[in-house]
Automatic annotation (TrEMBL):
Keywords: Membrane, Transmembrane, Transmembrane helix
A single cellular component GO annotation: membrane
Naturally occurring in which organism (per UniProt): Bursaphelenchus okinawaensis
Listed name of the protein: Tetraspanin
Chain ranges passing through the membrane: 9-32, 38-61, 73-98
Length: 223
């Protein structure tokens, strides 16, 4: 019995890496707006590991490769490491989506402390892009800005009631952000969960293919 890999087993690491990239791009502004650099680091780590897994599987499939034993030695632990990272990132994503949908006050605190501050330029730029792309203003509406340092330290008279990037002063950004995180989070969690199952299956088949004693015992059980 030999290990026969289906096409989806070969290409799934690249699909997972692509999905992770799409999710990261789709939630880029929200990550910066909430200052969740930790999540960005996890996503970048996933992309690197998935590409390594895909490359290792590609080398493993070359039956005549002289380095197959070496590739097998590294591929097994790499699959397990990738599976653990996938499970961890999916769990973090679930909590992040829950936080974005049920704790909008944390967003409001970021607005109060970060927007307009020279020390938080990324936060300011992220909120401006959120306003423009989602056609919204603040978390709940323009009134949120009255409590911010940006509003209190304006040099204009009369003071602006909201930043110029606000597309609509009435509609808040909470609902668009919640929807966006829910869609992206569901997509990411689903793909990584399926990828984890495939990696576990692949790891089992690697053990079977590379270990003659395990293969003989398994064949005896199936007779």
């Amino acid at each position: 019995m030999t290990w026969q890999l289906d096409k989806y087993v070969l290409f799934h690491p690249f699909v997972c890496a692509l999905t992770t990239s799409v999710t990261l791009i789709g939630l880029w502004d929200i990550f910066f707006a909430t200052y969740e650099d930790f999540l960005i680091s996890i996503f970048c780590l996933i992309i690197v590991v998935e590409v390594l897994v895909g490359g290792a599987i590609t080398l493993f499939l070359k039956k005549d490769s002289q380095s197959r034993d070496t590739v097998t030695f590294y591929l097994g632990p790499l699959l397990i490491c990738s599976a653990v990272i996938n499970l961890t990132s999916s769990t973090v994503m679930v909590f992040f989506v829950y936080k974005m949908n049920n704790d909008p006050h944390s967003l409001l605190e970021i607005v109060k402390l970060g927007y307009g501050s020279p020390w938080y330029n990324k936060v300011t730029e992220a909120w401006d892009r959120l306003h423009i792309s989602n056609e919204c203003c603040g978390v709940y509406g323009y009134k949120d800005w009255r409590e911010t340092d940006w509003y209190k330290h304006q040099n204009t008279y009369p003071p602006l009631r909201a930043p110029a990037s606000c597309y609509n002063n009435v509609i808040g950004c909470h609902l668009p952000i919640s929807f966006q995180t829910a869609v992206m989070g569901t997509l990411f969690s689903t793909v990584t969960f399926i990828s984890t199952i495939i990696k576990i299956r692949s790891f089992k088949n690697i053990l079977y293919e590379s270990n003659q004693r395990v293969r003989l015992e398994f064949d005896n059980l199936t007779v």
